[in-house]
Structure prediction request, 331 residues.
Amino acid sequence: MTDQPYRPQVPAPQVEQLIQLRPLLDEEFVLSEIDRLRRERRAVILAHNYQRPEVQRTADFVGDSLGLARQAARTDAEVIVFAGVHFMAETAAVLNPDKVVLLPDFRAGCSLADTITAQGVRDWKAQHPDGLVAVYVNTTADVKAEADYCVTSGNAVQIIESLPKDVPILFAPDRFLAAHVARQTGRELHIWEGACHVHEAIRPDDVRAQQAEHPGAELLVHPECGCSTGVLAHHPDLQLYSTEGMVHRAQASNADTFIVVTELGMVTRLEKEVPGKTFVPVARTACCEYMKMITLENIYESLRDLSGQVSVSEDIRERALRPIERMLAVG
Ligand code: SF4
Prediction:
């Protein structure tokens, strides 16, 4: 079931410039300085699967939002450098109030997280006072503070299945993930009509074009993708995978070629974790500008100057912690 009054526009990324017009530092120097500073500051670098290849190679841990949140929860490092986007660094800050959490470029936002606000959730809850609110991890800390549960694409189905059957569920903000959860659980959900501009733009035609070029390749489709419903119409038994699920599936499958239907950076992670197999990105244009704002240079500068510190007010932190802990407990 979809609540009609809420139809937020997916905002275009507010990216003024991707190329920084200044002399580039020598890469060897930057890498050795990152290593020195990482040791001196007792820092850990956590990188999302969609990060640039060189950033993934430099990180101490590469994973999806859930994996990164788990690493952030268990690390004994004093400084966490988040090679990801703002909501991920905020989640690390909620879990680690006594640590320094750095985001090397504050422009690294998320178009999906921008489709919902805390006030929007409060207004929505007022319409469904008996409902439980489940929000995707791709939300700001103040939105999480309004939620009962936080979920990732890896454990959303499990969490929604565990909720009482007679209670309305408000699921936000990704409408494609919500449709996947509704299909898998058979539950009627109230759905916030948000989406990610990168995943929404992937069309069934992109998938078909790659299938024509790579006959016999297995599809690895993320549930955030705009193409998922269209692709399922042709492949009704197709499983959708979180990015972590894609790694496990590629390891277990007999196929040797895969079409990776999500953000481009996932191919780097798959090539590293599953050597000897071929991974084809569904579209070269499926590239998140926000994720690519983190570079070796700004990681180095952030570690050097302890710049880009992310903090969350104590009131929001305390309220956001409960749904985040519920997310970490599952899957
Ligand atoms: S790929 Fe989409 S959901 Fe992920 S960070 Fe970029 S804008 Fe947000």
The chain has three domains: 27-108+291-313, 113-196, 199-281. Residues 27-108+291-313 form a domain with the Rossmann fold fold (CATH 3.40.50.10800). The chain has 15 helices and eleven strands.
